[in-house]
Each structure stands twice: as structure tokens, then as C-alpha cells.
Amino acid sequence: MLDLLENWDRITGELRRALPEGTYDIWLAPLRPVAHVGSTLTLEAPPEVRGWVRERFTTALRHAAQDVLGPGVDIDIVARATKGAGEATTPTQPYAPALAQLELDLNPKLTFEQFVIGDANRLAHAAALAVAEMPGQAYNPLFIYGPPGVGKTHLLHSIGNYVRAYGGGMTVRCATAEQFTNEFVTALHSGRIDAFKGGYRRNDVLLIDDVQFLQAKVKTEEEFFHTFNTLYDTGSQLVLTCDRLPRDMNDLEERLRERFEAGLVADIHPPCFATRLAILRKRAQHDGVELAEPGVLETIAERITTNIRALEGGLIRVVAYGSLTGRALTGDLAAEVLDRICPAAARRRRPSVAQIQDAVCAAFGLARSDLLSASRSARVTWPRHLAMYLAREHTDETLPAIGEQFGGRHHSTVLHALRHTVERMACDPEAYAVVQSLTERLVAPEDDRDA
Fold it and tell me: Omega of the bond prior to 141 within 30 degrees of 0, cis?
């Protein structure tokens, strides 16, 4: 037995040199040698990590054992026996939370089936589904960004629910950056930092929402950096959501920004009218809402354009008002309720693409023919991108329809213009101010414009 332990010490030394420190501490430190019979070295692992260690680290263990014991040595990993009642137990490092606790982190209602796909979220949805089907193999990390209320959290939980249902026992951990921070601080104060690390690092899939809240928290950023590296090095999938691009998080360490950008960065925009209407229809169907006429949903979709949460909140208010007053759910009722909630928004205009083009040309001193031309000069390209962005935000036109009205351009050109405009607004205050000014002018109520 003494020789077995001595040889295991030499093997662990080889493993420490071959693997990152965090990876070794989490996955291989709990292993114990049981026997070395013939050419087989038998190791004992905690039951909850045995499968993962066998799948991911058998090769590394075999190479280390052969370096110490000679060629031909094989590895067998068995589950550590559970102590019966009354038997003494050896204190061990705390492990990840129980599966039942982890499942509480996921909202079972947020699934891919309940997610409405549109031009504004198609890329992010496709990437999220690919990650859910092939964790650690498709896009790692996956970074989803967009303004609040457009479906980032929905996709995050959809991935977790899909992996839990079809991942063959893969473990998933979902948390917000704020939750990660709070748990980290609590673990430091209570002396349970090892349990904290295990809870986040012993997972096949880690989902973190709102990573922008990691900024300016030096110790938390460092801990998350090591957590990220450990999971990435072991082939685990990471998915992150944020309200801005990684490069726009100026208070985040450069090394974290670089890792966030190392995989796929996918954006989500506010939904167009068609998508908003589809979201309302699915929600009404799911909740069994009886509509007196379909116009009620169209009215809500037309009035509320900011984000999905506000959209669903509008539907809830209209349904609640109808229920309390005993009135049927009609377009008139929806208009009446929404007029009380957001009267200014109810009177806002919906400009045409031509009106948007004229407004942009006036602001930049261009002719409309310039926007429609093939010119790629900076003098024309930025106003053209801006006009396409405004057309997408404030009309119900599809990407192909917008492209057609800008000199017959392909919809991919319009999509590029949208992304370029969003990115420029995020880092250029002057560009943001121009967009805001044009938006206010285009959608202002008639009486306000005439004043």
C-alpha cells in the first residue's frame, strides 16, 4: 500500500505539470488510488464526478501513470463507496450543488419552442440552438448582446433546458453576474471558497446573464477569469449575455474582454412589427386568452415597440382591464388602455422609408439619389447606414423590402448597416445624438412638430 501511495504522489506530480492548476484541483485532486493489479491502476472518484473524469481525463491519467509506472499501464476509475449510517466519514471538499438545486436556476417556461424567431434575433437563436445541441463544440464561448427585454435571458434558459432534457446527464449551471458576485463574496467571508468554485466549475454548461455587472469588481473579475479558463480548458460550454459588446465594457479587464470575443458574438435587436405580433399571438394562445377580435393584438404590437417585456406587459394590462370591467377584448379597448399608460407613445407617427430618407438627406446635406447610389465614400456610407437603421426601427418593412428601396440592395447589406450603426452608436456619442435627434423628429406627434 505504501508503494501505491508513493507512486500516486509521483503520478499527481506529473498531472500537476500537465494540467492547469484549477483543473487539477477541481477534478483530479479528489481521486484516490485503490489498487494496482497487473497492468491496471484503479482509482476511486466521488460518484458525482466519476463520469466526467472518465470521459475527459482518462487519457491524461493514463499518460501520467505510464510516465511513472512504465508503458502498458491502464486506468480504471470506480465510484467511491457511500458510507452507511453510523460509519465514520472522512471530510471531503464540498462539491457542486445538488441537481435539484441547479434546476431551480432555470425557468422551465423559457424554451426554444416558446421563442419567436424574427430578423432581429435569427442569428442569436441559431447560435443558441447549435450550442444546446453540441455543447463545447459549436461556438465557445457564445456571447449574446442586445438592449434589455429583447430575449437574451430567454435564449440563455432555453439552452439550459434543452441540455437538461436532451444532454444525456450533462450538468448545467445558470446564474446572473450579480448572483455570481454575491455568492463569491459570501464564500470568502464564510470560508467556503472551495465549495463556491466547485459549484461553478464542475459543470458541462455554464450560463451567465448580464455579465456587464462584473465590471469594476476586481476580485470577482479575477475569480470569474479563472472559472472561465477552467471550464474552457476542460471543454465545457460557456454562454454569456450582455447589454453591450465586449469591447464597450471599458471597466472590464482586457483579458476578460478578449476571452468574451474569442467565440461567437451574436446580437439581438428590438423586434419588428411582425415579430411583435407573433409574440403576442403565441402568448395569448399559451395563456388561453379569448380575443373578441384579432385587432387587439395588432393595436398592442403597433403601440409598444421598445422590448418584449413591455409588449407582454401591455397584453397583461389589456386582459386585466377587460376582465375587471367585463368588456370584450377589442382593438378599441386596447387603444383605450394603452392611451392611459403611454399617451405620448399612442400619438407617435410611423414614418415611411421615403420620409426617413428625406430626413437623413436633409440632416447631412445629401440628395436622395446619393443614398440610392453605389457610392461607398464615407460622406454617403454613414448616412445610408443610418437611414437603413431608422427604416428598420420605425417601419414594418422587412430587410429585403428596405434593401429594395435603397437602390435594390441585398438584405445582407441592410443587416450589415444595422450592425454597423448599433456599434457606432455604442462608442460614438455624436452618432448616438444624431440618431436620437432624427428619431424624435420622425416620430414626433403632428401637433408637436407644428408647434
Answer: yes
